Each structure stands twice: as structure tokens, then as C-alpha cells.
Amino acid sequence: MNETCFLSLKSGRRLCYGDYGDPEGRPLMYFHGWPSSRLQGFQLHALCLEKGVRLIAPDRPGVGQSDLQPGRTLLDWPPVVEELADHLGWDQFPVMGVSGGGPYAVAMAAALPERVTKGAVVCGAPPLAQFPNRSEMMWPYRALLRIRPHAPFLIPGILKMSNWISQYPPDEPPMSWVMKWTADADREALNGNDNFESVTRSFREGIAPGTAGVQIDGDVYTSDWGIDFSKITVPIEFWHGEEDKNIPFSMVKEYASWIPNATTRFFPGEGHYSIIMRAPSGVLESLYPQTKNATEPVAP
After folding, report:
1. What contacts 118, CB < 8 A, 6 or more positions away?
2. Quick one: 194 exposed, middle or buried, by C-beta within 10 A (0-12, 13-18, 19+)?
């Protein structure tokens, strides 16, 4: 495992990525959530080592240790990942996007169908510009979406406050107050083990160089993605909890229906974090059914 690797891109920028799992294993490109970083890939390190999969998790521009790319769009990402895949010697590979990484997995499938074999989107964000009714979203997300167009100068302070809150354990204020907004399944998954520390460590790394890259990353979700979903040919599987408070199940159910080869796994009672934490082997095996020691995918 090497959590901090660098690649110099043709643009002159540096891309940072984490290298997890089996170094000789089958390839998997992993896209982290928002606000987060490449360190999120650590959650799957032991499983990938067991299953014979090498997971590569890049920081997006301006996030973590990757250089900033002002004004970037969602479709600026596939050429960057293609450079990384060339560097790794990967001709074809599946992609996995978790939460805010979901759009990046879909963008890869749309832009590079000759290289992306399959996609998994776990609790992934939909194109929010096409969902003006956001009443089912958790109120802090709704507040951020309202603040950004009218008072963007407030966002850095909010992110810095979140960084301060993240240093408290999940069962103590002020973090315990935040946890009350999440689904019951998420509180169960995050409390009492290393999952919470993994999530907060990845978040703190994401904003370590400052908040500009995270803000640009957030703007992508409400922009026009520039994707014709009806023309995506790569198989994509959506995994989503029906009690997800961060990204409502109703949005994702409609969004997935726009993609011809999409399949869905929706789980009653599950939240935003719980699926990838409680049943990661099912997601991994949906991408590689013949992984070492593989079993049938299981629901949370």
C-alpha cells in the first residue's frame, strides 16, 4: 500500500493517487466522495488484498495533494484518468464511484467506453441541475446549495468549521449533533469502529491544501455535465440505500432509468455510508465476479 503517489501530467500539473490492495491484482479505478480524498480508498484496502484487486484512488484537481485546475468541468476528468491508466499500463479496467465520486464514474463510462469495462456507483450523486426539487436532501446540503450562488464567500468558513467538527468522536458533541441528521443505518455503520476515523481522515486530507479545490469539485455537481445518458453503452450498476439522507433514493431511481445498460440494487433501511461499509464485497464482486475467493454478492 502506498497512499501518496504522484504522476506528472502532460498539462504540467501533478496528480496524486493512492495505491491499495494487491499490487499484482486486477485493476480498479476508484473515485472518492465529496468532500473527501484518495485516502477514502483505504476502506477497501484489506478486501482488495484478499480478492486480488489493485485499487487506484486519485485525488481530483485541487483536492488533497493533486494540483488545482481552475474552471474544470466533469468531462475534464476522463483524459486525466486515461493518462493515469496509461502510466499504470492498464488497457481496460472497471470504475467505482462512491457518493460524490459517482458522477466521475459515469463520466468515464460515457467518455471512454473502449477502456471502461463496467461501472459501480455507490450512493452516487445525480446531476443536480436536473433535479430542482431538493426537499428530500439533508438540510446542510440544501443550505450549501442555496448559499453557493448567492454568498460563495461563506463556503470556506463552513468547510473549516466542518474540519473542526470532524476531530470530535461520533458520540460526543458537536459531532453527535451532526450524526443525528443521518440515517439510522449510517450511525450504526460509523459508530464504534474504524469507519468513522477513515471517513474523517479522508475529509481532512481533502481540504488540507485549502478549500478552493473542494469548492470547484462541489460546483461540478450542479453544473451541466455535458453527458447524453441515453448513449452510454458501458454497463453501470447503481447501489443505493432507500433511507439515504445525503442523496435521496428517489433522485437516483429516476437518474438510473436514463442510462440504457444500468442495473439497480436498492436497499430498504440502508443509508448513505452503510452499504459500502457493511457489504463492500458485493460491490467489488459485481465488477469482478471471478475475484479470488469470490462469493455471490450479498445485500447489506
Report:
1. 94, 95, 234, 235, 236, 237, 286, 287
2. exposed
pLDDT recorded at residue 299: 42
The reply to whether the predicted model has a pTM over 0.90 is yes
Q: Give yes or no for a contact between 176 and 264, defined as CB atoms under 8 angstroms apart.
A: no
Looking at residue 298, its pLDDT comes to: 40
| Model confidence at 209: pLDDT above 60 | yes
Say which residue the cell 485541487 belongs to.
62
DSSP H or E run through 240: strand 236-241
Q: Parallel, antiparallel, or unpaired: how do β-strands 262-267 and 236-241 relate?
A: parallel
C-alpha grid cell, residue 216? 470547484
Looking at per-residue confidence, does 295 or 41 come out higher? 41
Element containing residue 102 per DSSP (H, E): helix 102-111
C-alpha 93/C-alpha 197 separation (Å) is 29
What's the DSSP call for residue 74? G
30/94 Cα distance (integer angstroms): 9
Nearest CA to 96 out of 185, 26, 176 is that of 26
